[in-house]
Design goal:
One of its GO terms (molecular function) is aminopeptidase activity. Pfam families: Creatinase_N (PF01321), Peptidase_M24 (PF00557). This protein is α+β, with helices and mostly antiparallel strands. The chain is built from twelve helices and 18 strands. It has two domains: about 140 residues, Creatine Amidinohydrolase, Chain A, domain 1 (3-Layer(aba) Sandwich), CATH 3.40.350.10; about 240 residues, Creatinase/methionine aminopeptidase superfamily (Creatine Amidinohydrolase, Alpha-Beta Complex), CATH 3.90.230.10. A hairpin with a 4-residue loop joins strand 2 and strand 3. The two termini are about 35 Å apart.
Length: about 425
């Protein structure tokens, strides 16, 4: 559905580094991300930003942050491009030895997150927070930006107060917006990372196709799929497989010990699977044996809804225009949920940005976008997902895409036209 033609390096040639072929250039990946963050910083009145959010730290430093922050690591980026990183003892010493692009790595005193929370002591928490603020202030003095406004990418009144006690002027909203803007448009290497993780997910779907049969439990099949993902070098931070009546509505426990039976619909969601930090979100639906006509029709509805939305995505389009391609309240089956407003139906039909986090800019959703639209730009990446009930079961389908000049390039390639039928004996 797009005229985009892939270039030489595009198309997931392999997960390893080689000297005989151009693949993902990790040096360029790090450099271009830091440059983009610095460009956004230079557009503000900030002299530096203090990054506590893991994805922002990885974006600027290239360090392997894996998820939600315990705040035992943090980074300063100055307007001159200087980077100071603080981390736990083992990590910091490892980074000094193995990350030559980072010239200033220091030992962290975590004033937020797991360490102060576990201390059980108000005085300990005060010590940690004040020491963190003190060491950040010292670094800002060393790099000549202590008299300028410091941006902070998390909304922590306690940290803001501790920094202000040191005489620093702190701005939370500007730093957060600058980093969101920097990360919204992906570089070529970032897009290739997302292609790679889509390909790895497809290896997982193949394992599901091979392992799913009557008598297998959801957790057994999912375990085999996860093993395949790890074999390809992925980080697995989420995902699930569900079957039969657990597919509508989606089961709260995700994968369970339910035994798969003939005639079941099965779907899997490879979300938060990472390659070099870049996260997937990728649904596909399977049928154990030939699906019924009701199930085929439900699948066609979900797929058509998905592709109606994809046809609307292009540079310059706004998220309210795109969101109108998703089902209205009737199409959402709002009566099933006893819902009156779209905001009550989070995650059923929407599109969300992908990158170093599972949810990034942009978000396209009837519950939000109609009244709060933003503009789509070339280079944004996202996952678009839909669902539809089929009697006591349901289907889900999702594509990972990048916005191109002439529409979207679909990064996910597992067949989507029809439900994947799984034969068994």
């Amino acid at each position: 559905m797009t005229g985009y033609e892939r270039g030489f390096m595009e198309g997931t040639r392999g997960t390893q580094a080689v000297d005989w072929e151009q693949r993902i250039d990790t040096r360029r990946l790090r450099r271009e991300r830091t440059e983009r963050a610095l460009e956004r910083l230079e557009e503000t009145d900030l002299g530096a930003v203090l990054l506590v959010s893991d994805p922002n730290i990885r974006y600027v430093t290239g360090l392997a942050m894996t998820g939600g922050s315990g705040a035992d690591h943090y980074t300063v980026l100055t307007e001159e491009g200087d980077i100071v990183h603080w981390d736990t003892a083992d990590h910091a010493s490892d980074q000094r030895a193995n990350c030559p692009w980072l010239e200033d790595v220091r030992y962290a005193c975590p004033g937020l997150g797991n360490v102060p929370r576990a201390s059980g002591s108000a005085s300990a928490r005060e010590f940690l927070l004040s020491t963190m603020a003190e060491t950040v202030d010292e670094a800002l003095e060393e790099y000549g930006v202590a008299d300028e406004t410091l941006g902070l990418d998390v909304d922590s009144p306690a940290l803001v107060a501790a920094l202000e006690e040191r005489g620093l002027e702190v701005d939370v909203s500007t730093a957060r917006s600058a980093m969101e803007s920097a990360r919204a448009i992906k570089t070529d290497d970032e897009i290739e990372c997302l292609r790679m993780v889509a390909a790895i997910c497809e290896a997982g779907f193949q394992r599901i196709a091979e392992e799913t049969k009557p008598g297998k439990r959801e957790t057994e099949v999912w375990g085999e799929a996860v093993s395949e993902l790890w074999r390809h070098g992925a980080f697995v931070g989420g995902g699930y497989l569900t079957s039969g009546p657990n597919t509508w509505p989606k089961h709260q426990a995700n994968s369970t010990d339910r035994v798969i039976r003939p005639g079941d619909l099965v779907y899997a969601d490879f979300y938060n699977v990472g390659y070099l930090g870049y996260r997937s979100c990728y649904y596909r639906t399977f049928s154990v044996g030939e699906p019924t006509e009701e199930q085929r029709e439900a699948y066609r509805t979900a797929r058509d809804n998905l592709y109606d939305v994809l046809e609307r995505i292009e540079p310059g389009a706004t998220t309210d225009e795109i969101a109108r391609g998703f089902p209205d309240m009737d199409g959402e089956h709002a009566e099933y949920y006893d819902a009156d407003e779209h905001w009550q139906l989070t995650t059923n039909h929407w599109a969300h940005g992908l990158g170093l986090q599972l949810y990034e800019v942009p978000l396209v959703w009837r519950g939000l976008s109609l009244d709060h639209p933003i503009e789509i730009e070339e280079g944004m990446t996202m996952a678009v997902e839909t669902q539809e009930p089929a009697g006591r079961q349901g289907v889900r389908v999702e594509e990972m895409v990048v916005v191109r000049e002439d529409g979207v390039e679909i990064l996910s390639q597992w067949p989507v036209e029809e439900i994947t039928v799984l034969e068994y004996q």
